[in-house]
Amino acid sequence: MIVGAPHIIMVNFRLISKIRGIIISMSVLVSCLMAPVSPVTAHPHMWVDLNSQVVIGNDGKAIAVYQEWLFDDFFSTALIEDAAKHSNGIQAGLTAEVNIILEGLQAYNFFTLLTVNDEIVPADGISGVDVEIRGQRVWMSFTMQLAKPVDIKTQQFSYAVFDPTYYIEMFHLDDAVVSFSGNVPDGCSAIIRQPNPSSEAIALSQSTTLDDDPNQMIGRLFAETVLVKCQ
């Protein structure tokens, strides 16, 4: 269950330590005396741009969710630097680094909350993992299999991709459209519902204590939700 997922910094101490070093260095260079909250303490610290697609089987039921993650410049820099040290080259290094991350997230549905009729449902692993450098950023993709096919004509299917502690902000690109692949039933569409956090949630995200005492519920308050609907 994703709500109980550990902070993502537990996935790879070495990489996150490097990221924090970059963030702290930036804060020294940029004066923050006039800001109410230091960027080192306010969440989020990292950003991932998302793209996703609902995969439909031959019988018209949803069977998977394809995802693309584009890591921010800072995290990408750390990944690329470490990947470049791999004895078999940078691509092999990237694959190894991404496998470490995904292995740590496997027990937590890969930071993806799947629901059918408002009930949380499990995934059945991922396949087709790919990783490459796009510009100066690291891009990865995978397909998450659903444990059971979902009849999107009669059941309400939705999903959200987020870090439960909000250390990372994970949003679809501004112009993103969630598409379908496969034998899509007529009249089906997907919309991205934007989060609407309360002033209390925003204040909590700016708390100076979150790094030392992560709140496992806050991320859901800032998460997008993809809703699949069929008329």
Describe what you observe in this structure.
- The chain is an alpha+beta fold.
- It has one domain.
- It is built from 5 helices and 11 strands, in the order αββααββββββββααβ.
- The chain has helices at residues 13-29, 73-83, 90-105, 199-205, 218-221; strands at 46-56, 62-71, 112-116, 119-121, 123-134, 137-150, 157-161, 168-172, 179-182, 188-193, 225-230.
- Strands 1, 2, 5, 6, 8 and 9 form a 6-stranded mixed sheet that branches. Strands 4-3-7-11-10 form a 5-stranded antiparallel sheet, with no helix packed on it.
- Strand 1 and strand 2 form a beta hairpin.
- It is globular.
- The chain starts with 12 loop residues before the first helix and ends with a strand.
- Mean pLDDT is 80; it is low at 1-40.
Quick tags:
five-stranded antiparallel sheet; disordered N terminus; alpha+beta; 11 strands; 5 helices; six-stranded mixed sheet; globular; 231 residues
Q: Summarize the amount of helix as a percent range.
A: 10-25%
- Helix count equals 5
Number of domains: 1
**Overall form:** globular
Strand content bin: 35-45%
Number of strands: 11
Give the structural class. Answer: alpha+beta
- Mean pLDDT over all positions: 80
Main pleated-sheet profile: 6 strands, mixed
Radius of gyration: 18 Å
Order of helices and strands: HEEHHEEEEEEEEHHE
Give the low-pLDDT segments. Answer: 1-40
Distance between the termini: 30 Å
